[in-house]
């Protein structure tokens, strides 16, 4: 692959799925879920481009003892006295809308470090081929009453997480998606 992912040598119980053609984040997530079903109880997604990705994956997996879905945050949300948080990029605007619509308190909704109990997501319809699949995951998690836990881990903190160039679509697409999917 162009990003060097296919050069990674999986060890232990780590499995890696490579596609001949890029399928987007959603396509990769759907492939991972399909591969894991019937073979594993939990699924952990970890971005190997972060130097501490193994530790982040372990934290996410261990947190599944207390939740259905765990996300490891690369950033901490800075709150003001009235609990509003500062908004200064696309990721933050989407996070603010998602939190407001679903009464969530997430800071890094697009984090590439997540763990799922497969039985918790079995009834969900996750079908988007871009990052909107993550929005589907959060929205359907609330709809189906799943427990969500977000943990900040400084070992993967990254100041570029609010860079809109990392996302495949523009702000209006994600905001409209949240509105439509929330119905």
* Sequence of secondary-structure elements: HEHEHEHHEH
Shape: globular
β-strand number: 4
Assign a percent range to the helix content: 25-40%
Main beta sheet strand tally, sense and closure:
4 strands, mixed
Supply Rg: 16 Å
Structural class: alpha+beta
Number of helical segments? 6
**Going across the major beta sheet, what is the strand order?**
1-3-2-4
Average pLDDT, rounded to a whole number, is 83
Low-confidence stretches: none
Strand percentage lies at 5-15%
Distance between the termini: 37 Å
Please give a structural write-up.
There is one protein chain. With 183 residues, this protein is of the alpha+beta class. The chain has helices spanning 24-36, 53-63, 90-102, 118-121, 132-143, 171-182; strands at 42-45, 69-73, 114-117, 148-152. It has a 4-stranded mixed β-sheet with strand order 1-3-2-4, with helices on both faces. Helix 5 (132-143) packs parallel to helix 6. It is globular and about 40 Å long. The model has no long low-confidence stretch (mean pLDDT 83).
Give the helix/strand layout.
Elements: H1 24-36, E1 42-45, H2 53-63, E2 69-73, H3 90-102, E3 114-117, H4 118-121, H5 132-143, E4 148-152, H6 171-182
Parallel strand pairs: 2-4
Antiparallel strand pairs: 1-3, 2-3
